[in-house]
Design a protein that fits this description.
By secondary structure, the protein is mainly β. The chain is 0% helix and 44% strand. The chain is rod-shaped. The model has no long low-confidence stretch (mean pLDDT 94).
Length: 203
């Protein structure tokens, strides 16, 4: 019969996806130092109602951080190795309408606790040289490894170097003399530290 009926419509409502951002997106900390809280938000004005679920990697070499969670990210990492470790958080934003946005990431670089190995002669005669060798066992770090040296010598000892800070040299020679007739000593205290690349506090 060729008769047209009345027009009708169908509508599809397309909700937007949240675009997540992390601040800071990357940071460097020392082992056993709390991270700067990672604030999670959106870059497209969808903060209201948006939630965030996250997981992280490197759960064996870095402990002390939750392996998963929701909301902003906090914690105090412990680097159980002698080298730098990177933890990557993968975060999924979900809008109040239930739409998942694309995953985004935040990274935390965790330096190890600074360590130092010192080899030297423990007993010498007056007027002899002692060679002090310093070994850096933290070969893989984010930043610069150095050490501070505190020297405490008995008054009768001559030739001992003075206390110093920020030293990087791997060895030094001391010619030590004893002006007395009994044994005296020099105590060398080595304090290693790591200065991170991002200008943060030394480890």
């Amino acid at each position: 019969d060729g008769c047209d009926g009345d027009a009708f419509t169908a509508t599809v409502t397309v909700n937007p996806e949240p675009v997540g951002v992390a601040a800071p997106a990357s940071q460097t900390v020392c082992s056993d130092e709390a991270i700067t809280e990672i604030d999670l938000s959106t870059s497209n004005g969808m903060d209201a109602g948006t939630t965030y679920a996250w997981t992280r990697d490197n759960t064996t070499d870095v402990t002390g951080l939750a392996n998963s969670g929701t909301g902003n990210i906090t914690g105090t990492p412990n680097n159980v190795t002698g080298s730098v470790q990177v933890v990557t958080y993968t975060i999924i934003p979900t809008s109040g309408d239930g739409c998942d946005g694309d995953a985004f990431t935040a990274t935390v670089t965790v330096n190890p606790e600074p360590d130092i190995i010192v080899n030297t002669d423990s007993v010498i005669c007056s007027g002899e040289n002692t060679l002090i060798n310093i070994i850096n066992p933290n070969t893989l770090i984010s930043g610069d490894w150095k050490y501070d040296l505190e020297v405490i010598a008995d008054p009768e000892i001559g030739g001992a170097t003075g206390s110093q800070s920020g030293i990087t040299m791997p060895s030094f020679n001391e010619t030590l003399t004893n002006s007395d007739t009994i044994v005296h000593k020099v105590a060398y205290h080595f304090i290693p530290r790591i200065t991170p690349d991002d200008g943060g506090s030394d480890c």
